[in-house]
């Protein structure tokens, strides 16, 4: 009888020990906070978000954004690097799509139509920089939207 209880106790201890070890092994590594000292060099050039170069075999797609007198629709879109957005003007005014900030468009200089198209016109741009790119109609900067490139 005592032998039986001893064996059961040993089994329970072994199981508890195994569970304890398993639990400890599965704990995720702790993330260490690295303190960064801010750069005191004010002459350093402002860098735009770095582009991640990924060779992507998936098919590139084109998304259509319509510009009406109510603004851009859909206002915010998320696409993949290499995808194209076609902006179609269905408004009563001119459309000149450009990245922020107005009027210099320096956030993503290539993302700038540099011309105006009237109703019925369109402009297509292929995004090759990963990031979140706010844009506006340069002819009516109150109309804006955002293209997020993953
Ligand atoms: Cu502008």
UniProtKB/TrEMBL annotation:
Gene3D superfamilies: Cupredoxins - blue copper proteins. This is Blue (type 1) copper domain-containing protein. The chain crosses the membrane at residues 5-22. InterPro entries: BlueCu_1 (IPR000923), Cupredoxin (IPR008972), ET_Amicyanin (IPR052721). Residues 67-136 form the Blue (type 1) copper domain. It comes from the Bacteria. GO terms for molecular function: copper ion binding; electron transfer activity. Keywords: Copper, Membrane, Metal-binding, Transmembrane, Transmembrane helix. The keyword Metal-binding applies. It comes from Candidatus Zambryskibacteria bacterium RIFCSPLOWO2_12_FULL_39_16. It holds the Pfam family Copper-bind.
């Amino acid at each position: 009888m005592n032998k039986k209880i001893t064996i059961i106790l040993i089994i329970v201890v072994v199981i508890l020990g195994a569970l304890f070890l398993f639990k400890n092994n599965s704990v995720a590594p702790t993330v260490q906070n690295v303190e960064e000292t801010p750069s005191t060099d004010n002459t350093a050039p402002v860098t735009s978000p770095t582009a991640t170069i990924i060779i992507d075999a998936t098919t590139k797609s084109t998304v259509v954004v319509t510009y009406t007198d109510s603004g851009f629709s859909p206002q915010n879109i998320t696409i993949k690097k290499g995808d194209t957005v076609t902006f179609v003007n269905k408004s009563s005014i001119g459309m000149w799509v450009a990245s922020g900030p107005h009027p210099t468009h320096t956030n993503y200089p290539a993302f700038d139509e540099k011309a105006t198209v009237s109703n019925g016109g369109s402009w297509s741009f292929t995004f090759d920089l990963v990031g979140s790119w706010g844009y506006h109609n340069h002819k009516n900067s109150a109309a804006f939207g955002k293209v997020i490139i993953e």
